[in-house]
Write a structure and sequence with these properties.
This protein is mainly beta. The chain has one helix spanning 63-69, and strands spanning 4-7, 25-28, 33-35, 40-44, 47-50, 55-60, 71-73, 78-81, 89-94, 100-102, 107-115. The strands form four sheets. The protein has a four-stranded antiparallel sheet with strand order 2-11-6-8, with no helix packed on it. Strands 4-9-7 form a three-stranded antiparallel sheet.
C-alpha cells in the first residue's frame, strides 16, 4: 500500500518512523499551544493523506508524552477513513499536573495503518450462548 501525503502548509512534516520495522509513523504539530492541566486542544498537523480502500489510519498517543507529561489523545484511537481528505487534526488532553508546551515541528502522536474488512451485518432475534454471557466491566475480578 502507498500512502500519499499532501503538505497543506510549508512547515508541515511528512510522517516518518523512528526505527526500521516500527508500526507507528510520527505526526508533528504545526502550531504552538500551551496546554494547561486538564485542558484539551485540537492540534493541527498541516497534512492530509490518501490511501487505499480496505485500510484505515489509526491515530494513537505517544508513550513518552503519556508517561513523562500526562498527555493523551481523546477519541483514541482516532480513525481516519480511506475516503477522508481533510487535514489531520489531533485532540490532545493534558492529564498531567504541569502545563505542557506543544511546540511547532515536534512529535505529538503517531499514525498506524491497518487492513480492515467490511463485515456483512445480519439482524437476528437471538445470539448464540457463551460461557461469558453478558459479563463485562470487571466481571472477572482482579485476581
Amino acid at each position: 500500500m502507498k500512502v500519499k501525503v499532501k503538505k497543506l502548509v510549508e512547515e508541515a512534516k511528512v510522517p516518518k518512523i523512528a526505527h526500521e520495522g516500527d508500526a507507528g509513523f510520527d505526526l508533528y504539530s504545526i502550531e504552538e499551544i500551551n496546554l494547561k492541566p486538564m485542558q484539551r486542544a485540537l492540534v493541527r498537523t498541516g497534512i492530509s493523506i490518501s490511501f487505499d480502500k480496505g485500510f484505515e489510519a489509526q491515530i494513537r498517543p505517544k508513550s513518552g508524552l503519556a508517561i513523562n507529561h500526562g498527555l493523551t489523545l481523546l477519541n483514541t484511537p482516532g480513525t481516519i477513513d480511506a475516503g477522508y481528505r481533510g487535514e489531520i487534526k489531533v485532540i490532545i488532553a493534558n492529564l498531567g499536573e504541569k502545563e505542557y508546551l506543544i511546540e511547532k515541528g515536534k512529535k505529538i502522536c503517531q499514525v498506524v495503518f491497518n487492513k480492515i474488512e467490511e463485515p456483512e451485518i445480519e439482524e437476528v432475534k437471538e445470539l448464540d450462548e457463551t460461557t461469558r454471557g453478558e459479563g463485562g466491566f470487571g466481571s472477572t475480578g482482579l485476581e
